[in-house]
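[step 3/7] fold_predict: job queued, chain A
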Amino acid sequence: MRSWWVTVSEPITFAYFDSPFQVLYSALADRATTQAAVLLTSPGTIVALEKKGRTYLYWRVYDARGKRSDRYIGPKDAPETTAQLADVEGRIAEARYFADTSRALRKQGYAAADNSTALTLAALFNAGVFRHGAMLVGTHAFGALLNALGVRLPANYYTEDIDVARYRPIELATRPEGGILEILRASGLPFSEVPALDFRKPSTSFKVRGQPLKVDLLVPGDERYKSYPVPELGAHATGLPFFDYLLEASGEGIVLGRDHVVPVRIPTPARYCIHKLIVASLRAPTSAQKADKDLAQSAVLAAVLAEKFRGDLEEAVAPLAPKARKRAAQSARRAVDFLHARHGAGRDFLEELQNG
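[step 4/7] structure written:
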């Protein structure tokens, strides 16, 4: 699969989705954010099985690893089965709506996550992580921002990492006995801790055995990239410099999956744009590809926001501390080259940022 980011020799250009699809996406987002919980299986079907001359109804679903399970509903001819059957049929209908609408949008080029990623995000949402103190950052957040802005890139984005940022203590109704691992494993995927390179330091990452999917926990920190405890999740997180700036403003978003549409909390697009400029300046020379990815994401958002919401960019720049502003200006000089000449408003903003 071709990556969504490009090199300087191939400037970025983008288009907007047609209005009917933007309306469809907006309606989907409104409905998805009302979910109390996201189904962690396929939508499933109702099946009737004969046992000892009597018919029993089951809800047949498939989990993250394709394993089938039949959930008992009740005897087909029993009056008490009627209400339970209606409830299951309603849940199936809603799940199919999300799956079908997501499929229609993904065919148009909307950014989406693979099934394992969507299920992992769903498990975090169901536990209340995104409602009560954490947000999604990184490339999956970027994809959600693009979708909300109606932006279509000429190539798909792809990432196997889920970056979860804690911006305040995560107030879960009940602390899971197994901590973050218990939450992640509710997805049906076999997560385990990733040992830190320095064995004296605690793990801040969790990976699915046999798959590249990884979840990283992040918190505000400094350029020492120390680990900090997250007691409510029984885990630790990596502290990142200038991260508090990104986490100070956020909003609701959704991530599209194959069978699921998952509500998440994400940074505002303007802060994400400026923060990516800062992050690019922190990359070591050996991480040039990651820096280019940061600059490409920032350039796209700068172009979109400069065309539609210029005031948001100005508001995002205003609170920058001098050191952060200097880093953002330094990267803006490079980010200009990532944008095609047709996106003049975005180029103008980046040039103004580097000069001011």
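[step 5/7] annotate
The longest helix spans residues 81-108.
The two ends are 39 Å apart (CA to CA).
exit 0
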